Structures are given as C-alpha cells and as structure tokens.
Amino acid sequence: MDVLAELGAVLDRFSVERIVAHNAPFDRGFLAAELDRLTNFDRYYFDRLKWIDTRRDLAFQVGSAKLNHLAADRGILNPFPHRAVTDALTALLVLQKVPIADVIARADSPFVVLHSVHAFDDNAKAKGLGFGWKPELGKRWLQAVKEIDLPMLREKAAALPELKISRIKDVTPEEVMA
After folding, report:
1. What is d(CA 97, CA 99) in angstroms, rounded to the nearest whole number?
2. Secondary structure element (H or E) that encloses residue 94, with its range
3. How far apart are the C-alpha atoms of 85 and 78, rounded to whole Å?
4. Of 159, 146, 77, whose CA–CA distance to 106 is shortest?
5. What is the mean pLDDT of residues 47-56?
6. What is the pLDDT of residues 78-97, one digit of tens each?
7. What is the average pLDDT across 103-113?
8. In which order are the strands placed within the sheet that holds 140-146?
C-alpha cells in the first residue's frame, strides 16, 4: 500500500494524465485488482488516468503489434525482451518515434465492433480486412476497430462489395478482442 500511495502522490505532484503500457488492459487489470484488494485507499489519482496502449494506439506498418516488432519497424532493438524495465524503455523509445498528438487521438478514440456478412467463399477477404470468426459470439465474423480507423477501413472495404459490413452493439469490443 505504501508504494501505491507514493505512486499516487507522484502522479498528483507531476499532474500525470496518462499511463503508457504495452497491452494496457493486462496492466490495468493488475492495478485494478491490487487497488480493489486495499481498503481505505484513495483511488482518485488512479481512477482519473487515461491509458495509452502501445499495442493498439500506434498506427503500425508491420503485420504484428508485438512490442519487439513495433520497435524493429522503427529501427529499435530491445536487447532483453519480456523484462519489465527493458520493455518499458522500448515502449518509450517507440513512442518517441511517432507524433504524440496522433497517438493521443487514437488512444481517445473508442473501439467499435463491426460485423461482416458474406458468402463462405469470401472468408479470406474478410480475414484480409481483419475480421475473425467468433463462434462463441453468435457464429459471426467480427472485428473491434478504433473509431478513428473507420474511414480507412471503409475505403478498403469499398473494393469488396461482397462483404456486407455493419456496426453492431450487442457485443463489446473486449469480447471480440479476448
């Protein structure tokens, strides 16, 4: 508890508005579980923070959102992958290579869920646009995308009129990304 109290004081002292993490839902879950475990703890500084997820809030060119791939795409080598300190430093170096205003705009953009209805023979086209088969979510082809990315996806989908893509609200983005 002392460490979290000190961290809360540091967040307040420096007016921190955002936390950066690679695969932020994972880290956010650990932090939330620890805060839930504590009693009589002032969560104010933690509950008001916004998160930047370097896995989802960076526009990347490679076919993977793995931290080492994002880094290598920007000429950065992580000498000791999957270690907290070097992964944090690698994420920082990657973040320095992109316009921070763009990253914040993506971070603030909500996820939406899209559904593709198409013939069986067009499954590969749906996969090519990022849709995945989700039998556990009603046997549908679904995709969670940032709202900011919808114009780009619409442009790509325009070349594939055989895919009937619509926005749905009966499934959460977290369910699709799980």
Report:
1. 7
2. helix 84-96
3. 11
4. 146
5. 90
6. 999 999 999 999 999 999 99
7. 95
8. 132-134, 140-146, 111-117, 164-168
